[in-house]
Amino acid sequence: MKNSKLLSILNNMSEFSIEDLKSLRKSIDSSLKYRSHQTLMDNKHSIKVGSYVIVDHKKTQGKIFRVTSMRRTKSSIQNVKNTVESYNLPISMMEKTTYDPINSFDLNINDLHK
């Protein structure tokens, strides 16, 4: 939706009755619920046990995880490089990645000097 269209709706809101505003809120809530459910279903059908995912959170930024188990709305994941680090997270926070452990090559200079 364009900003000008949204601004015109907001400017006219003072003319709406309470019932109209409640109806608008129900409509918005319903749309938000539907879209978040669709995102969850899309993620759930594309992410399987063994898939590699990234997590949309500052604590896990730049890390790749492997899915170890799936439940209805949550999944257990384990860090690829540090197997001690694992989380139980909602599927909606995960995004499938194209990480390939066979063809990935990470050279750590500190490992060479041990």
Explain what the structure shows:
By secondary structure, the chain is α+β, with helices and mostly antiparallel strands. The chain has one domain (17-96): SH3 type barrels (Roll). Helices cover 38% and strands 21% of the residues. It has helices spanning 3-12, 18-46, 109-112; strands at residues 52-55, 65-70, 74-79, 86-90, 94-96. A hairpin with a 3-residue loop joins strand 2 and strand 3. The relative contact order is 0.12.
The helix count comes to: 3
- Overall mean pLDDT score? 83
Query: Structural class, please?
Result: alpha+beta
Percent range for β-strand residues? 15-25%
Output the helix-strand order: HHEEEEEH
What name is given to the CATH topology? SH3 type barrels
Strand order of the largest sheet: 4-3-2-1-5
Unreliable stretches: 109-114
* Biggest pleated sheet: 5 strands, antiparallel
Distance between the termini: 57 Å
| Number of discrete domains | 1
CATH architecture: Roll
- How much helix is in the residues? 25-40%
Shape verdict: elongated
Question: What is the total tally of β strands?
Answer: 5
Structure described in brief:
The protein has 114 residues and is of the alpha+beta class. The protein has a single domain, classed as SH3 type barrels (Roll), CATH 2.30.30.
Reconstruct the topology from this structure:
Layout: H1 3-12, H2 18-46, E1 52-55, E2 65-70, E3 74-79, E4 86-90, E5 94-96, H3 109-112
